Amino acid sequence: MAATTLIRNVSVLWGPDLALVERTTLAIEGRRVAGLDGGAAPAGAETVDGGGLLLVPGFVDAHVHIGFADPAEVLRRGVTTVRDLGWPPEEIFPLARASEQPGFAGPLIRAVGPIHTASGGYPTQASWAPAGTGCEVAGESDAKAAVRRLDMGAAAVKFALNPPVGPVLDHDTLRGLVDAAHAAGLRATGHVYGLAELQKALDCGVDELAHMLMSEEEIPDAVIVRMAGAGMTVVPTLSIRFGRDRELAIDNLARFRAAGGRVVYGTDLGNEGPGPGIDRTEVTAMTAAGFDSLGVVAAATVDAARHLGLDSKGVLGDGMDADVVAVPLDALERPELLSDVKMVWREGGRAS
Known about the structure:
By secondary structure, this protein is an alpha/beta fold. The protein has helices at residues 71-76, 89-98, 140-148, 171-183, 195-203, 221-229, 243-258, 280-288, 293-300, 302-307, and strands at residues 4-14, 19-29, 32-36, 46-49, 54-57, 59-64, 79-84, 108-111, 115-117, 134-136, 157-161, 188-192, 208-209, 233-234, 262-263, 324-327, 343-346, 349-350.
């Protein structure tokens, strides 16, 4: 990594408001952004011609299963930070720690470890899930003990309520899990199927849906308003939905957003549908739900980084981590071009 890198002849989405600065130079010093209009290149600096491209902050994918992907490919295709939402803890937490080291060939990884569920519940019987992906809990005290065992740096506590494929946590057990998560300073995020389970999640103070409601159902407007009013966040993962199911999920998301709900970008990488990197299908579906290009970028950068507590990421600004992605300038008008990644830096190191 050069001590200084100047990316010339670019437009930049600058600062937390993603203000467009045209025909400028982005300066990187070491691992940090050092400002715009870098002036004369200091001795030993690397100068890159940006060819009129648009620089955006590196994307944050708030729902992946990184064990199914090549981390280096995820990074090369524009995602510089991920949150893994379900994997055996003895595998994912060491990988997350390794991702913090300079030179790691992939994105920064945050992880929740296992998915908490009822005995025999999803994903304990799922063909995709390696042994240890599900953590079975039997009662409120067991739920609290399970959260206490997450001593490896968990980014959140995840649970599943998926009645079609097995038993689900009852109200008291889920409430115990959520309370324990909050006591540990963590959010509770859920894979939720069905309106009744969504109501249970709201009653128990769940913070986040790891997908838009997984069942093929329209969420009533009153429930949408309650979700938004409770401060719930939704990670849409629309790219794993198909046909009428996707249409309903898009409509639910659009009404949630219109009600003031918080949305952060996530694809469920590793599941059926999305590929590594900025996913064109996810972006296009979010556009159908009412997001313009800046809205998609905000959900995947500024808002996602804040949601995950990553204060030095998600923004191109002085002193911020130099997680930088170059895409065509036309992506400002055509959101699908955000997936057309030309160059990537993670903390100042060139990845592509």
